[in-house]
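Researcher: Predict the fold of Glycosyltransferase involved in cell wall biosynthesis.
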Amino acid sequence: MELTVVMPCLNEAETVATCVRKAIECMERHGIDGEVVVADNGSTDGSQQLARDAGARVVHVAEKGYGNALMGGIRAARGKYVIMGDADDSYDFTALMPFVEQLRDGADLVMGNRFRGGIKPGAMPPLHRYLGNPVLSFIGRLFFGSKVGDFHCGLRGFRRDSILRIGLQTGGMEFASEMVVKATLHGLDVREVPTTLSPDGRSRPPHLRSWRDGWRHLRFLLLYSPRWLFLIPGLVMMAIGLVAGVLLTKGPVVIGALAFDVDTLVGASAMVVIGFQAVLFALFTKVYAAEEGFLPEDRRVRRLIEVISLEKGLVAGGLLALAGLGGLVASLVHWKVNNFGELNPREALRIVVPSATALIMSFQTIFAALFISILGIRRTKENPEDVAASAVEEAAEAVTRAPKDASAIVDKETAETT
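Model: Structure tokens for Glycosyltransferase involved in cell wall biosynthesis follow.
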């Protein structure tokens, strides 16, 4: 079978039959060997029977959520290609050929673009049209290098095997973002075709909740991009803190009417520590995500881990600790020079703060080196060849043992008889 059209459904009695008939009509008109699968997520309004009567195959998906319903339909699909679309009659299922043609041409994922194809009056709320979709799509392109202009178009087509291979996991509305992000990160062939969005045919409110689901999309984009969530903010904070710290260690800095002194030095120290921790978190996240299969392995991170071994991390942490201890010794000497009496904070803090910062970073470095080494311990995984070889060996041993076991049983029965 060439094509399966998958429609997630939750109480779409008003429109599901119309969508199914349109999709079947399109496939029949163009001679496509295909089917329509309605992934029902617990409808209580009779949507299931209406879909069957219109010619669809209905599969029940118990786990709630837009993404869960779609994955249930995708797994149940029999077609080489899958086109998914909402069952609310907002997308034109009679115009599926642009998607099919791109898939036949070798595309792994074909996204619809509503901004290129046209959004009819009343089809999309202004908040989504001018803020939500453009901003989230821009963030997706910035974070992941994707060229997709409409991250959240509900009408899209893909090779079933390609999408199953990248391991989609989210169960809610953020499933739409996850598909584009993971397809991009895994290097799949992603293309776009214009598509039209019309007002849906339902009389009830949509399942989508603007702020809640918008936040879920944004949260997903941030969590899947440690570079923008941790690394870049951390490097910026470290750079600012280091520059300010070096200047203020030498003495006060006056810019116009503003005078920066040791209180600013303490803030600069905090920025360095927090920024360094954020950079380490970026590294932790990348290693963990690659080991667990959430993200494809980053060769740059892998090379960095190979270069920065546990031993080198411990040495670097030790050197920072020595620098920090040296600074503290210098502060004690400074105190002794002042007969262990009251010190001028403006002088003392210029020694103590950098020393304490070095000590804190030394322990961060040591703990990070240990933790990354733990994350890098690979679990032993049997590949299919190993499993097959073990099965053959066990079968051979069983065949070899069988005659001996049978002979032993006969000898035992003979002995008992006599």
